[in-house]
UniProtKB/TrEMBL annotation:
Belongs to the p23/wos2 family. This is HSP20-like chaperone. Residues 114-144 are annotated as: Disordered. It comes from the Eukaryota. Residues 6-104 form the CS domain. InterPro entries: CS_dom, HSP20-like_chaperone, p23-like. PANTHER family: CO-CHAPERONE PROTEIN DAF-41, TELOMERASE-BINDING PROTEIN P23 HSP90 CO-CHAPERONE. GO terms for molecular function: Hsp90 protein binding; protein-folding chaperone binding. GO terms for cellular component: cytosol; nucleus. GO terms for biological process: chaperone-mediated protein complex assembly; protein folding. Pfam families: CS.
Amino acid sequence: MPELPKRFPEVTWAQRSSSSDAERNYLYVNIKAADVARKEASLKITPTNVFFSGPSRKGVHYEVSLDLYSEIDPENSKVNHSDREVELVLRKKELKEEFWPRLLKSSERAHYLKTDFDKDDEEMPELEEKAGESAKSAKIQEVS
């Protein structure tokens, strides 16, 4: 079987910061990889990287590796994988009031990465709760 063409999925992100409440100190990352079945996908979350890979039913292999600006806490992060996208709520490791200046360690522009300006404080807890409900069935692999 021929190898599927590889593409970067569109990735959107937003963040919240708190110096005192870990529940309010997270990144919201959305990997838009339509038609990639959960059982076919590979998702690895480490303190400094998020890796996603998977074939879609439309003949495209999505793959992206995100080297994060700073560390996250994989054990307290949540995943919701639907037919259209993978929603991640990644808890930042350090409690700080300051926002990260960017998602990625590198300051080079990534054409597939966009800031999600539509997320606001009222909407984020609802999304976090939704992601938490399906986190029990999602598999997060921590790679050393």
